[in-house]
Write a structure and sequence with these properties.
Layout lengths: L1 H19 L9 H14 L5 H16 L7 H15 L7 H14 L4
Helix pairs in contact: 2-3
């Protein structure tokens, strides 16, 4: 799994370098790594769709906090901290998925 993830990341880097024709260390700062980790933590690690939901929430919170200008990252960090305190397993953890499956299966008429 780690080798496949590394190969996929390498392919992404190659395509990025080819598209931009120039790569420098400032293209990949610490905030890129922080947000990449936040996607999985916010969305939830137990499901495939958790990190995808994490991307939507992370980018939504980041863009929604633009109105705070200079305090943007402080507000964003506070919102993420609150989310992790109240939902430590992420927004879409295993229990939520089981609850959603039961709920959706009761709504479908063919079962």
């Amino acid at each position: 799994v780690a080798a496949a993830a590394g190969a996929l990341a390498a392919l992404g880097g190659v395509l990025y370098a080819h598209h931009n024709t120039y790569v420098e260390p400032r293209n990949f700062d610490i905030m890129l790594g922080v947000h990449s980790l936040a996607y999985a933590l916010i969305g939830g690690l137990g499901t495939v769709f958790g990190p995808l939901l994490g991307v939507l929430v992370d980018i939504g919170l980041l863009e929604g906090s633009r109105v705070f200008q200079g305090y943007r990252m402080i507000v964003f960090g506070g919102l993420v901290a609150l989310l992790l305190v109240f939902r430590p397993r992420g927004l879409l953890d295993e229990r939520t998925v089981i609850w959603l499956r039961r709920r959706l299966s009761s709504l479908t008429p063919w079962r």
